[in-house]
């Protein structure tokens, strides 16, 4: 029994490790694909070479990020069979078709146009190439749609029936399963997080080059565009997070109780605990710094609204409070810092100092990894907060695992750690090298008109004055 428990712990650690690596790359590529589409669209509309040069600059980075995302995602599907075969057998009739739809729609769309996007800029007409870029960007959105539908159904399962053999079978309507109660909120929250991740990565690169040369047109343009995204999207994310939190309180109350550190119920308004040390043994948060009744105001929009605590949840159904509590605060803290950077940039823009304020550039550079850290923290809140269930409320994690041998799982986990840090460590190092190089005023691969291909008449070159 003890060995089996360790095997499950190691299997969970293995999946958490691999999915954490994988999640970083789609979080970047979703936003970066849209950024590339905007850059190419602005190039076609204005004819300004600065957009073409930035497109070429970030296209190289996108290619590496996309490739690492695909490679890191492949191994997770194998783990469903090797480590979580019971879950796969029971939930397969529901989640299998949804994941197949992701392949048939998003993956095929991306695969069909990715080559044109990456290698066809001198071989097809500009408008056709823009269509390919748009197709890849749309494909990343469709991929997120289906994957988040699957994950959301595991968080808020509806529209299913339990067959005689214990399998989850789809009910009368697939629409009920796809658009399950938490899916719209999770989709918006995750996509905004991806756009913010990209915005702060792009902003950090622009800030790095502005600190070296404030006259670089590419650095100025990318920093300006990134700060617009921060100023607009970060406040929207706060609103989206509020709606998502209210939905989670309704559908997964134990998760919110862990996020807030509410071991005890509060019949007359619950405090917002800013910081503290959760003590599950004593059922309290030690050294708590809190704002009286603020949690009720945020979650119920009423200072005196009662909020239930973990004392209303069976001990066997409680998530690990400490992990969820701190991951949530990391996510929210970084979100507030993003809002602050966005507002700071608006002030600098209003005073016509956006490219001159070095402290703003240094802050943006420090915030470069913030999106990646925030999405990982959010993922921890989502997945650890769902425990001890794989399908919330109906299938426990301990009942989802394959018959496992702990030493075998430990060996495979160690192999993953070594290989991932070696392979993806080199990939990240190469990405940083690409980002370290300043955007050039002229990209030779974009000079001149595209050659004739597949009967498409090439359009005239538009890169005159590429440094404009």
TrEMBL record:
Keyword Oxidoreductase attached:
yes
Arranged from A to Z, the UniProt key words for this protein are: Cell membrane, Electron transport, Heme, Iron, Membrane, Metal-binding, Oxidoreductase, Transmembrane, Transmembrane helix, Transport
| One GO term (biological process) | aerobic electron transport chain
A Pfam entry, by short name: Cyt_bd_oxida_I
Molecular function (GO) terms for this protein are: electron transfer activity; heme binding; metal ion binding; oxidoreductase activity, acting on diphenols and related substances as donors, oxygen as acceptor
* TM region positions: 23-45, 57-78, 98-121, 128-148, 192-211, 223-240, 323-347, 359-381, 408-432
EC category name: oxidoreductase
Q: Where in the cell is it found?
A: Cell inner membrane; Cell membrane
**InterPro entries (alphabetical):** Cyt-d_ubiquinol_oxidase_su_1 (IPR002585)
Q: Does the keyword Transmembrane helix apply?
A: yes
Write down the membrane topology.
Multi-pass membrane protein
Q: What is its EC number?
A: 1.10.3.-
- Cellular component terms per the entry's GO annotation: cytochrome complex; plasma membrane
Q: Show the coiled coil region(s).
A: none
Q: Which PANTHER family match?
A: CYTOCHROME BD MENAQUINOL OXIDASE SUBUNIT I-RELATED (PTHR30365:SF14), CYTOCHROME D UBIQUINOL OXIDASE (PTHR30365)
Family to which this protein belongs: Belongs to the cytochrome ubiquinol oxidase subunit 1 family.
What is the designated name of this protein?
Cytochrome d ubiquinol oxidase subunit I
Q: What is the lineage of its organism?
A: Bacteria, Pseudomonadati, Pseudomonadota, Alphaproteobacteria, Sphingomonadales
């Amino acid at each position: 029994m003890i060995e089996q428990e360790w095997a499950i712990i190691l299997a969970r650690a293995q999946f958490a490790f691999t999915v954490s690596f994988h999640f970083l790359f789609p979080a970047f590529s979703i936003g970066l694909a849209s950024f590339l589409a905007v850059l190419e669209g602005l190039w076609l509309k204005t004819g300004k070479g600065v957009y073409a040069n930035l497109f070429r600059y970030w296209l190289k980075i996108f290619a590496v990020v996309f490739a690492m995302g695909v490679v890191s995602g492949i191994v997770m599907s194998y783990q469903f069979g090797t480590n979580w075969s019971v879950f796969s057998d029971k939930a397969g009739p529901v989640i299998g078709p949804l994941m197949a739809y992701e392949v048939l729609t998003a993956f095929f769309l991306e695969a069909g146009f990715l080559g044109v996007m990456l290698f066809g800029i001198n071989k097809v007409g500009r408008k056709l190439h823009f269509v390919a870029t748009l197709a890849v960007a749309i494909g990343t959105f469709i991929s997120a749609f289906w994957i988040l539908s699957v994950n959301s159904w595991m968080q808020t399962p509806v529209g299913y029936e339990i067959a005689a053999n214990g399998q989850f079978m789809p009910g009368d309507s697939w629409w009920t399963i796809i658009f399950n109660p938490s899916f719209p909120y999770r989709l918006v929250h995750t996509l905004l997080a991806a756009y913010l991740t990209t915005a702060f990565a792009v902003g950090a690169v622009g800030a790095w080059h502005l600190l070296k040369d404030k006259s670089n047109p590419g650095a100025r343009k990318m920093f300006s565009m990134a700060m617009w995204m921060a100023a607009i999207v970060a406040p929207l994310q706060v609103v989206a997070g509020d709606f998502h939190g209210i939905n989670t309180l309704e559908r997964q109350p134990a998760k919110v109780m862990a996020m807030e550190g509410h071991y005890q119920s509060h019949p007359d308004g619950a405090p917002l605990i800013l910081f503290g040390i959760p003590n599950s043994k004593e059922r309290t948060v030690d050294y708590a710094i809190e704002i009286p009744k603020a949690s009720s105001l945020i979650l119920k929009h009423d200072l005196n609204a009662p909020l239930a605590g973990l004392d209303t949840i069976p001990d066997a159904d409680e998530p690990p409070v400490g992990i969820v509590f701190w991951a949530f605060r990391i996510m929210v803290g970084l979100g507030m810092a993003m809002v602050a950077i966005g507002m700071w940039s608006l002030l600098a823009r209003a005073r016509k100092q956006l490219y001159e304020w070095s402290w703003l550039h240094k802050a943006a550079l420090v915030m470069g990894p913030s999106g990646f850290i925030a999405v990982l923290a959010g993922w921890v809140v989502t997945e650890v907060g769902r425990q001890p269930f794989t399908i919330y409320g109906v299938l426990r994690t301990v009942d989802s695992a394959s018959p496992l041998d702990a030493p075998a799982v430990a060996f495979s986990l160690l192999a993953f750690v070594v290989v991932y840090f070696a392979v993806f460590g080199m990939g990240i190092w190469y990405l940083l090298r690409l980002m370290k190089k300043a955007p050039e005023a002229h990209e030779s691969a974009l000079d001149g008109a595209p050659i004739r291909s597949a009967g498409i008449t090439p359009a005239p070159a538009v890169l005159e004055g590429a440094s404009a």
